[in-house]
Amino acid sequence: MATDTNSPPPNSRPRVICHMVTGLDARVDVSSWCATEGVERSDQTDLYYELMRGFGARGYIVGRVTMAPYATGMAEDPGGAAPARRLHLGVNRDLPLAVVLDPSGKLHWESGVLDGEHLVMVLGPDVPDGHLRELASRSISYLVSPTQRIDPDWLLAELAEHFGATLMLVEGGGVINGLFLEAGLIDEFSLLMIPALDGREGARNLVETSRSMTELKLSLKSVEALEHQAVHLRYAVNRDTSVRVG
Ligand SMILES: NC(=O)c1ccc[n+]([C@@H]2O[C@H](COP(=O)([O-])OP(=O)(O)OC[C@H]3O[C@@H](n4cnc5c(N)ncnc54)[C@H](OP(=O)(O)O)[C@@H]3O)[C@@H](O)[C@H]2O)c1
């Protein structure tokens, strides 16, 4: 699959594509979906990762809740000197990036590489020194945000400066997608839609935000029927500046 060649946004921040797998009701918690007749869910998931690699992005950005099941390390402060309080760059950072918003430092990892991707933890300003030492000792990169609520604009600028990012994928969950969409930072949605339904009231949606979306204008870029009964939908996101944000 070709690398995405769309031109960068005007202020030269990294371009952002929100890439997700959804059922027909745009819910995103795969564990609660009905099956697709005659198709293994793992084959559909593999398709999602294949599309993801095809974008040629510098990496993906996800929320703490999404990554919690994969964070299987032990909490342990190795002790020693005071850690860097703003930025630490681990080894292996030429790999694709797995950037995780974890403002309170709740996640612990075994190493800095997860499924071939280099972990970059994005932390709040009150995370204790011991947690930063733990991350650095496992060669995990980290960025410490100046604010507890991480500003996605700030994060993209940091990823461009320290990791050379020009294209990032935002990959959920709904809260993180909502954070970037509200800030006007999602340029495109890439949805792998599969025949599945969740249907539970309150189940996580593609985008979770309290803001109205009336200022957005979406347009279809492409639609492609794929194997395993999946459809790949791409939508450009534009803003109607004449409409006030609700
Ligand atoms: N279908 C798909 O393609 C797909 C992809 C990814 C995830 N998912 C699903 O999505 C669900 C999880 O999504 P979710 O919306 O509940 O959670 P999420 O977006 O993964 O994570 C939300 C958490 O991120 C942190 N966070 C969010 N905004 C922040 C900000 N501005 N500053 C600092 N930290 C911030 C907070 O962590 P703290 O709580 O620690 O403060 C918040 O609770 C799971 O069911 C997962 O399987 C589906």
Automatic annotation (TrEMBL):
GO terms for biological process: riboflavin biosynthetic process. It holds the Pfam family RibD_C. Keywords: NADP, Oxidoreductase. GO terms for molecular function: 5-amino-6-(5-phosphoribosylamino)uracil reductase activity. InterPro entries: DHFR-like_dom_sf (IPR024072), RibDG_C (IPR002734), Riboflavin_Biosynth_HTPR (IPR050765). Pathway: Cofactor biosynthesis; riboflavin biosynthesis. Residues 14-229 form the Bacterial bifunctional deaminase-reductase C-terminal domain. Signal peptide: none annotated. PANTHER family: 2,5-DIAMINO-6-RIBOSYLAMINO-4(3H)-PYRIMIDINONE 5'-PHOSPHATE REDUCTASE, DIHYDROFOLATE REDUCTASE FAMILY PROTEIN (AFU_ORTHOLOGUE AFUA_8G06820). This is Riboflavin biosynthesis pyrimidine reductase. It comes from Allosediminivita pacifica. The lineage of its organism: Bacteria, Pseudomonadati, Pseudomonadota, Alphaproteobacteria, Rhodobacterales.
